[in-house]
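Action item from last meeting closed. Structure (181 res):
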């Protein structure tokens, strides 16, 4: 766990971004979904909510084992559902909430889908490294270096509650739980 308060991370030299009360409410919903994922066989405790105009348009939790689909991360599940619900492939104006910092795949999917804003709970420093596929590259670099320069990222919303869902940086997860080996 880091001591950083919520809303202090932003890519590059951008000013710190503040989380809103609505951000905390939608993250609370993402937390509920993550807890549901934790209770569901073949799923994992990562939750995601996509909000447009103050309304949830799609949500989901990780369904990788459930679907036998390594791309069925919570964010991918929610992005696919949002596209289907809205009948379009671009999610301009939407905010994506995830209980855990999105991985490289989900960060890129957020960029490709033109999501406006990304808000996450636990960050890379708050959890065990097994949750990320790359040892050194911070997936936020994808946003930092994207052609799009206008995607704000807010980290640490309900950080403590979100981090509690995962193995901590110094925990020793059992080998079968180490998904990136
Ligand atoms: Zn992912």
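Sequence:
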């Amino acid at each position: 766990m880091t001591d950083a308060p919520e809303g202090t991370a932003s890519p590059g030299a951008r000013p710190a971004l503040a989380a809103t009360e609505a951000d905390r409410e939608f993250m609370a919903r993402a937390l509920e979904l993550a807890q549901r994922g934790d209770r569901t066989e073949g799923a994992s405790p990562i939750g995601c909510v996509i909000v447009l105009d103050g309304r949830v348009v799609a949500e989901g939790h990780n369904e990788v084992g459930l679907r036998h689909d390594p791309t069925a991360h919570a964010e991918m599940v929610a992005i696919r559902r949002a596209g289907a619900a809205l009948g379009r492939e671009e999610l301009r104006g939407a905010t994506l909430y995830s209980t855990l910092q999105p991985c490289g795949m989900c960060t890129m999917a957020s960029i490709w889908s033109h999501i406006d804003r990304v808000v996450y709970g636990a960050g890379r420093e708050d959890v065990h490294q097994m949750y990320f596929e790359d040892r050194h590259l911070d997936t936020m670099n994808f946003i930092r270096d994207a052609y799009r320069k206008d995607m704000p990222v807010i980290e640490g919303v309900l950080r403590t509650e979100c981090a509690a869902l995962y193995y901590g940086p110094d925990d020793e997860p059992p080998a079968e739980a180490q998904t990136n080996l």
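Note appended to the action item: Residues 95 and 117 are 5 Å apart (CA to CA).
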